[in-house]
Write a structure and sequence with these properties.
Strand content: 25-35%
Radius of gyration: 20 Å
Strand order of the largest sheet: 1-3-13-10-17
Amino acid sequence: MSQAKEESLTSLYYLKRSDRWHQEKPYFITVPPSALPRGHETTNEESEPTDGIKVMHLTSKELSLSSLDIRGFTVASQDFSPFPLESFQDYASIRSEYVPPMEAWIRKCLNADIVVTLSVNVRKRDVSFPQFTWGTSGDTQPIQGVHVGKRSLQAHDRSVLIMERLYSKTRCRKDTTGDWTREISVDRTPADADFKVQTPTVHKGLNYKLTKTQSIWRPLFGPVRDWPLAMLDFQSVDVDRDLIAADVIYPHYVGESFNVFHNPKHRWYFVPDQMPHEVLIFKSFDSLQGVSMGKMKRATPSLTVLTYATACPHASFDLDVSDQRRRESVDMITAVVYPD
């Protein structure tokens, strides 16, 4: 009986270490180069491939919910049958057929009180990717560079602003089932895949004890062997040396993310042959910062002090498997709040 494969070797693209980052902040403009004035670049980032990266195989059975606060990611199982592929052909269908039940599922899965979707993307790898980062079909493409999405105070402020607009002590109550009842109308028509909250008043004084920005990722068909998603274990990240803030410039606002420098101590994982019912949940931001989780047992007999995971760097990577259907996936960025 042959032994199951436990790891895959690949190349991952990290930001190149350079003295320029002491004076200049990395940036990326999310429009095609043709849309910019002559002489202007879409990015000043310099990425370089690091070969021979080991990506360990894992399954949803190997991870518990606590992995989210230790490694920065976990895998959960959810029935995908209620979501036909037709639901992902346009954002109106995604808004009405996919987002509401997913918010309810995330709230239950994470034991949260409030979940609101900040953005959603359907990614369909074009045949020209990765030679052309943008592809040629107009569809949103996978992201090859190691990164963290919306992060830090920018994500926190945006999440809290939406929470304040959606919920207040006078406009929100818990019903007998423990769910929050919304009493404010919200227009969730996406513009550039970002949901807009159409409420004129910002309600002050919302009490909350923890705000997290969670990314929810799943393939639309499986098994996925074409550019799957790899997750970096937060416990292997040197936050001060490996991460650098970068501006992400959209037509309607400027966001912020983390780029990542290579560190040979990094530990990478992915779900081999991932199916649509296997949902990756990983952090972009957590308002609980700089916390030690105390001494906890790991795979080795020794005891190690673990740092509370506040983010999860990730990247798509090439498995170098031929004749596979090109990846299609859907990802959501959600604000998850635990109010007092």
